[in-house]
Sequence to fold (332 residues):
Amino acid sequence: MSRKRVLITGVNGQDGSYLAEELLARDYEVFGLVRRVGLEAPEHRLERLLPLLDRIHLQPASLESYAGIFNAVAKIRPDECYHLAAASFVSYEFDDEFSTLTTNINGTHYLLASLKDLVPQCRFYFAGTSEMFGSAEEMPQNEQTRFRPRSIYGISKVAGFELVRNYRERYGMHASSGILFNHESPRRGHEFVTRKITSGVARILAGTATELRLGNLDAERDWGFAKEYVDAMWRMLQQPIPDDYVIATGKLNSVRDFVRIAFQCAGLDWEKYVVTDPNFFRSGESVALCGDATKARQVLGWEPKKQFEEMIREMVETDCLAAGVALPAATL
Ligand code: F7E
Fold:
């Protein structure tokens, strides 16, 4: 039997790189969509993929071009497609609204339309997000909770989610959405708070920084481990019937909790180093979002395993290694 072919958009991101690894281990032939500019400086722009580059195929295409997406799908003819690429930083800046909305919605639409016309049997995964719940009316949130997005990013994802549902219902496509709550790892982008904290701890320990400036320490999130979340994506596409699933730990922690544990790993007292900076506060951001992943547990047999503290330690260790410092023995 020939190997299954998979197309991953956003393959060079945190989730894309974990997913590519998992699917290679499952003997898929992996095709990743990347911006042409990424191929010009792979050591920087495709950093997370460097260990995999000789085992995956990279296809240059922009999600902003229907022709580009159509041609890539025609060439690859995937059996499964995971659409992870998006402008994913939750910005409250007015300037970012237009590009976030158009890129995220059009990219999803172009991909779905191309798959429908060229390979309608292809199974499709859409990266939905807890940001779609926004100022949710209930807690925890599950698949029945009404979406009330508060950010343009959340609005763009609700639109993508509705496109997926429509392609599933109108055209009978095997298209599913994961509603993923925050998920982190040593591969997380530095703009997100968790990696900002763990790399900040490493810099302080290495003596190259003296403080860490953060926004709202009381903000709470449901933080899981990214590698486990991409496994949930794969499980969704192996189901006989496409559907939508919340993927979350069901546990809330504050930014302050994360900070305290990360500094503790390095044997440091966080209160000596963390400075709150109004520039990093977000006005009117989503309330504390906490997910109920009962359906994923029952149908997909998925559940989160890694503990919050263990994940933070792994992130701090990786950043310390990169900064050339070892964690003090007493904290190990
Ligand atoms: O913020 C607070 C901030 O930027 C987490 C994306 O993957 O998850 C992610 O979105 C919390 C917020 O992630 C700083 O206000 C405090 O309450 O790490 P974040 P996010 O906005 O929750 C969802 C599920 C997605 O889908 C997104 O794509 O931390 N916070 N101080 C800060 N946040 C940042 N970035 N920087 C700070 O200094």
About this structure: The CA atoms of residues 48 and 145 lie 35 Å apart. The first helix runs from residue 14 to 25. The pocket of F7E is lined by residues 88, 90, 129-131, 181-182, 191-194, 196, 214-216, 219, 221, 255, 280, 282, 285 (CB under 6 Å).
